[in-house]
Amino acid sequence: MTRNLRSYDVLGNIAILKFNRGDSLSIKKKRAKKILEENKGVRTVLEKSDKIKGRLRKATTKYIAGENTKEVLYKENGCVFRFNVDSSYFSPRLSNERKEISSLISKGKKGNCILVMFAGVAPYSIVIAKNCKNVKVVSVELNKEANNYAEMNVLRNKLKDKVEVVRGDVKRVIPTFVKQKRKFDYIVMPRPQLKEDFLKEAFAVSKSGKNGTKIFYYDFCSADMVSEVVNKIKQRARESKVKIKILKTKVAGEIGNKRIRLRVDMQVT
C-alpha cells in the first residue's frame, strides 16, 4: 500500500506523490511502481515539490516512473480537463467545492452572469457552466499557458457559448469591465496565497440591492483567525463604500502547518 508516503494526489493518468524526506531514488521508484500496479488508470508517477512558484502558482514536479509526461487528462463533476501539472495550478481537492458552488448558483435566479477570478485552466468556470442553465461565465486568468488550456477545455466540454476566457491580471481587467459597465450576479474568487485580496476589484463590478451580487471569496489563515478575515472583508467593503452581508464561513480544506483554506460567502446589499 502507500501508507508510507506523506501524501499523494491522482490527477487522471498521473499520480503526484510527496515522499518522505531522505528517501533514496531506489525507494521512490519502488513505491512509484507499487502505485502504478495498484492504480490501473495511472500511467505516470511524479514527485511533488513543496514549492508553488510565483504569482502564477506554478508547481515543480520530478519524473519518477511510468510514461514520461506531465500532461493530464482529468475528469470531475461531469467535465473533462487537460493541462500540464507544472505550468498550470490545479487542485483535485477542490472538486467538491466546485460542485457546491455550481449547485448554489444553479438554485439562484436564471440568466446569471458569473465572474471567476484566478480561473486557471477553468475548472470552476466549466463546472458552473456545465451544471447551471442559462448562465454566462467570464473566466479571467493571468497565466498564458493556463488560458490556452482553458480555451481548449471550454471547447472539449462544448461550452463555447457559455464561457468567455479572458487573459490578464485581475487588477487590469476589472477596470476595463468597469468602463464597459459590466456587472456580475456571482463572483467566484479561488484566490491564490498572495498579499492582495482583490476585494476592491470584486466590489467594483458588483450589483447592489435586493438581488445584489453574491461573492465566494477564498483566503488562507490559521483556524483561530476566521474572525480577522471576516473583519478584513468588512473593512474592504467600507473602503469601497459598499454594504455587504456575510452569509457563511466555511473551512474548505487544510493546507498544512495548522492553516486552512477559508471560504467566505457574502452578498452586496
Structural class: alpha/beta
Any idea of the CATH topology of the largest domain?
Rossmann fold
Mean pLDDT: 91
**Large-scale geometry:** globular
- SSE topology string: EEHEEEEHEHEHEHEHEHEE
Oligomeric state: single chain
Radius of gyration: 19 Å
Low-pLDDT windows of residues: 1-6
Beta content: 25-35%
The total count of strands amounts to 13
Gap from first CA to last CA: 52 Å
**Biggest beta sheet attributes:** 7 strands, mixed
Level of helix content?
A: 25-40%
Q: Can you tell me the number of structural domains?
A: 2
The CATH homologous superfamily of the largest domain is called: Vaccinia Virus protein VP39
Could you explain the architecture of this structure?
With 269 residues, the chain is an alpha/beta fold. The protein has two domains: 7-69, Met-10+ protein-like domains (GMP Synthetase, Chain A, domain 3), CATH 3.30.300; 93-268, Rossmann fold. The protein has helices spanning 25-38, 95-106, 123-131, 144-156, 170-179, 199-204, 226-239; strands at 7-11, 14-18, 44-53, 58-66, 71-76, 79-84, 113-116, 136-141, 163-167, 186-189, 214-222, 244-256, 259-268. A hairpin with a 2-residue loop joins strand 1 (7-11) and strand 2 (14-18). The longest helix has 14 residues, at 25-38. The model is unreliable at 1-6 (pLDDT under 50).
